[in-house]
Amino acid sequence: MITILNVPTEREFSQRKLETYAKYCQVLQWGRSHPVEFTERFMGISLLDIQKYAIAGAWNAEFIAWLESRNAGKTTQAAIYTMNRTLLIPFHNTYFLGNTGAQAKEVFLKIEKIAKREIESFTGSTEVFFNELRQLGATGDGFVRDPSSFHTEAFNGSAINTLNSDVVNIKGKRASLVVFDEAGWFGSELFVQAEQFTNQDENFKLGGNINLALEPKNFPRQLLYSSSASDEESGFYKKVRSFTRQMLMGNTSYFVCNFNADVVRTATFNGDPYPPLLSQVKIDKAMQDDYDKAMRELYNHFSAGVHEGQIATARDLMQCTITKPPLLGNPDGVRRFILAWDSARLNDNSVILVAELINDEKIGWRMELANIYSLVDVATKGKTPLRLPEQVERFKDILLAYNGNDFGKLDYENIEVVLMDAGAGGQIIGGASDYLLANWERDGVVHRGMIDPLHKANETARNAYPDAIRNVQLVDPKGNRNDLFKAIEDLLKLDGVIKLPAIYDGKDYLNMFTDDGLEEVRYPLNTEEQIGLMQVELLRKELTTMCKYTNGDSVTYNFPPEYRGVMHDDRVYAFGLLCWYLARLRRKQIIQAPVKREPPVRKTCVSALPV
User: Fold this and answer.
1) Is 524 within the bounds of a domain?
2) Would you say 328 and 243 are in contact if contact means Cβ atoms under 8 Å apart?
3) Main-chain phi, psi angles of 215, to 5 degrees
4) Considering the domain boundaries, does residue 300 fall inside one?
5) pLDDT tens digit string along 411-422?
6) Quick one: which of 528, 246, 277 has its CA closest to 238?
7) For 202-259, how does the pLDDT look when each residue is reduced to its tens digit (9 = 90+)?
8) Residue 402: which of 348, 460, 337, 344 has the closest Cα?
9) Which domain range does residue 457 map to?
10) What CATH number is given to the structural domain containing 226?
11) For the packed helices 570-591 and 527-545, what is the interaxial angle rounded to 10 degrees?
12) Each residue of 90-137: pLDDT tens digit?
């Protein structure tokens, strides 16, 4: 005999509502089995065939690597994937990690734009995801932009959060999915900390007299690494290699997809050809501009990348990169700059590097590279530098711009120092520094000359040009070369001491965040800013190629043999001048730091104590 007990509830459901809930559950179960079809039917987002493959292959795996070329749509793909799991799996917690907090927020903002139907290419997208979000606050829309972390929460208890790359502040989290955006440039310590988020078994339950053998299996906790290729020393390369081996051996816990530029260029939609995301013209131009970089970023070739004794890796430079355009002058008339000029006439490049000098309360003196100028004569066949008098005139224009003369500043008031090569390349005798000694005129205004009074080349000039301001420092390249490059090595290892402008991907704009980190804006780049970013890319190339060679007590810095005579080291040398000066400033700051003394302890005479 079976007795059916109907337990009364606080709210009785009508038959129609029960049927609605039953259909809702059927949709969820169907979506969990068919995530690609769910995306297209309910979210209204059409996917290319390669995107369908990546999402379907990753759905039930635990360890996922998406190795995809630039412009393959990795960020959009990760956003769609996360939205699906958030809707279909209750209490699903996602964390986005990037090298910086701003980078982690890019995927979150992509989700927000898709949910609000603000992406033009998704013409048929629906508001299904947006309608499932909890509206936080009277004017909230479900997307919370807290400076420390962007987050959103759905009615089913699932949530999406962003984290920055600070390994100290990301400990102790629990997640169902961790997405590493641009994982090729992550440090190993960040992987170690964030991978612990998913350590707890998804099927672990305790209490309530449950039988685990009868409980349905939960979706696996996932680690998703998404990036273009980096170098063979990166943690991402090791994971791609390991995951691929496991996948080929039939281990369904691992999934890897490798979409290079040709796969993206020939991508199909439902089996039919479709206009490509990446054109052959852009691929060919990238290959001509920088073959090694194009092979890495477009064709997913992990560069051997790490030369023996390399003074800086691409990951080192990525860690000190900020998404900002180069500065073309002194924007407010109060910033302070250092200039380094490695002048040349025929055999080398003549470059001027400008860096903003900042006295930070937390870390002391630091600098942000503002811009790089190449004084090249575009009319010459070999693109050799301008004639020396023309170089000097160009330097004077740069000097006034960064001094902030438009704000009524006195001569070189905001120029900390001008560092110049004192070797043969610098052509001291009759060279660039000699052209700066005398007073000069620009737009009817007379400006004072500049001199290094301590250098032997100016032994008689000190008396001949008494009005010259003493803010030039001539540096002997032979006697100081090792110190310059050692300063680069040392300072790049210090967190936050050196910052470089944004990585240039050929576009005429940058996606940046406002100062408070809450809003993403598109910053249009003018021609000068694009040229500046191109020059910074050349500096990055020189930095990652320069190596330190040790033979007993002898130390030399040079390019690997196959690059000698092919690459110039002018930008990295001038950058070394900047780092060398900054290192001396920081050392002086440490030596002269006031010693904190404890207040003297007042002693009481024993005889004065009460009996």
Assistant:
1) yes
2) no
3) -75, 140
4) no
5) 999 999 999 988
6) 246
7) 656 666 666 666 666 788 999 999 999 988 888 899 999 999 999 999 999 999 999 9
8) 337
9) 314-591
10) 3.40.50.300
11) 80
12) 999 999 988 776 778 888 999 999 999 988 888 888 999 999 999 876
